[in-house]
Amino acid sequence: MQDSVPGPVEVIQLSQKFLIVIVFSHQGISFMIDCFRACRERDDCFFLICGKGVNAYKIQTYIEQENPTHVKLLGNLPHDEYEDMVPACNVGLIFMDYRFTIPNFPSRLLSYLQARLPVLCCTDPNTDVGDVCADGGFGWKCLSNDVSAFCAAVDSACTADLRSMGAEGYQYLLKHYTAEKSFHIIMQDAKNVLCRNRKD
Questions:
Q1: Which residues contact 134 (CB under 8 A, 6 or more apart)?
Q2: What is the pTM of this model?
Q3: How many angstroms separate the CA atoms of 106 and 43, rounded?
């Protein structure tokens, strides 16, 4: 299988399906593959995997051995091509290893929100990124050891008002994650520290 961007014929074929994009990381690969297998009989969605990581060979091996028709590994894309492709998809997908014990917040969430994509988060129990997306009205969450919950989330995504959810996510991005907002948060924290030091 070639690591290439879908050509014109493929784009026409995929335009009839629900596109879910994944920015590749080394996290949760085994669970990711289990989810792909669980969705194998679906004909209404397609998973595009962008980028490469140290465990990309596991995805490549799965594709070569099982020949799924609903998954494509694109490999690394030039920035401009990636920026063009993501908004053409329907949902952004985040996989995180269930075994994580330290909360972390994946930066690829920001590129999904920038592209106005709702986000499906498969995470460990200790991070709140799934809660942020679900509670904010622009995504879904499941634990990254629950394939049935993932399939249910895909079901929900396929029937959701994606345009409205994407708009909610974009507004959340503007409100919480802009450089200006981050600057004000950092400055406020610095002022709080200074005030406490003066009192001491």
A1: 121, 140, 141
A2: 0.80
A3: 29
Asked if 151 and 39 count as a contact pair (C-beta separation under 8 A), the reply is yes
Q: Which residue has the tokens 């952004």?
A: 92
**Closest CA relative to residue 48, chosen from 15, 68, 19, 87:** 19
Closest-CA residue to 129 (of 76, 93, 79, 85):
93
Cα(160)–Cα(168) distance, integer angstroms: 13
Write down the pLDDT at residue 192. Answer: 54
Closest CA relative to residue 63, chosen from 48, 44, 78 = 48
How many Cα neighbours within 13 Å face the side chain of 193? 6
Residue 151: burial class (beta carbons within 10 Å; 0-12, 13-18, 19+): middle
Model pLDDT for residues 151-197, shown as the tens digit of each residue: 999 999 989 999 999 999 999 999 888 766 554 545 554 555 455 55
Token pair belonging to 129: 């990124």
